Amino acid sequence: VAEPPMTVRSLLEGAEFEEIITKNLVAMGQAGAGAADEEGVRARVAGAMQAVHATLHASLSEDHEKMGKVHVTPEQKDAAFRKLQRFGDPSMVRVTQAALAAAMDNTNAGGNQETLEHRLSDKLKGRLADIERLRASGRDGVASEYVPSPQTEIDGRRLAAADGLDQDVCTHAQALLESMHDQIGDDVPAAPARMLSMFGSSSSSPGAKKPSFMTCLMKAAPSPTKATKCIADNFSAFCKLAMNMLKGKAP
Predict the structure, then answer these.
(1) Are 69 and 77 in contact (CB under 8 A)?
(2) What is the C-alpha to C-alpha distance for residues 100 and 222, in angstroms, rounded to an integer?
(3) Phi, psi of 48 (to 5 degrees)
(4) Alpha helices, DSSP H only, in the chain?
(5) How many other CB atoms sit within 10 Å of the CB of residue 163?
(6) Contact residues for 32 (Cβ-Cβ < 8 A; gap 6+)
(7) Interaxial angle between packed helices 113-124 and 235-246, expressed in degrees from 0 to 180 and rounded to the nearest 10
(8) Could you tell me if 104 and 223 are in contact, meaning their C-beta atoms sit under 8 angstroms apart?
(9) How far is it, in rounded angstroms, from Cα 249 to Cα 251?
(10) What's the start-to-end Cα distance of the chain, in Å?
């Protein structure tokens, strides 16, 4: 019996995707009781993904059904999963920790973007090898074109209030759907990813443009997963900014 074709929805609901999230969260030290509690994280991810599916089905039923009809090639799946797996790459984890520490210090000190640039430069000084390793490992950190839109803000607030949802898991699901849209196009409905992007973050102004890396990082703190996504989505800009900082040039 031939296996059913892969679809966007089957990837989102699949065990392989949940395993990627689990390993990433363990690598990021987001295990709650401790980084060694992988089974606990796996159970947390499974429960949170069930909540994601239930909420998307309830709030965006037509789009949820449509995702089950959009076919995905093995190459498209591999590209999406490869980008997600980079979230847990040891170099990415260390770079994200440094960037997040700079953002949190800046927020606590009441700083602005200029002071964040100085703090980021200081924090990244010991991470040059990691940045170079990430640059050499590939170019899967392709910028997403998603921007929160007015029609999804209400659904986003409903999502944030739903039981059993988890910001880290929602960010992974958002990243997968954005990657599918970037590769396949408008056959992949945009609203589910936009809705997921609203969870755990302040609402964007209607018609807002995609934020720069620095703006994204400031809004991401204190979430390691959101900060990692900022770096992945703005990978070229981040590398250029970081290298200029480390060479003593103006950002």
Answers:
(1) no
(2) 7
(3) -65, -40
(4) 8-12, 15-27, 38-59, 61-67, 74-85, 90-108, 113-124, 128-136, 150-161, 167-184, 191-197, 213-220, 224-233, 235-246
(5) 7
(6) 40, 41, 44
(7) 80
(8) no
(9) 6
(10) 57
192 in the Ramachandran plot: left (φ > 0), alpha (ψ -120 to 50) or beta? alpha
| Residue 79: both structure tokens together | 């590209």
What pTM was computed for the model?
0.83
- The CA-based diameter of the chain, rounded to the nearest angstrom, is 62
Rounded Cα–Cα distance for residues 138 and 224 (Å): 21
Q: Which two tokens stand for residue 44?
A: 């947390």
Write the pLDDT tens digit of every residue in 48-74.
999 999 999 999 999 999 999 999 999
Q: Read off the pLDDT of residues 137-175 as tens digits, 9 standing for 90 and up.
A: 865 444 444 444 444 444 545 444 444 568 899 999 999
The answer to whether 159 and 214 are in contact (CB under 8 A) is no
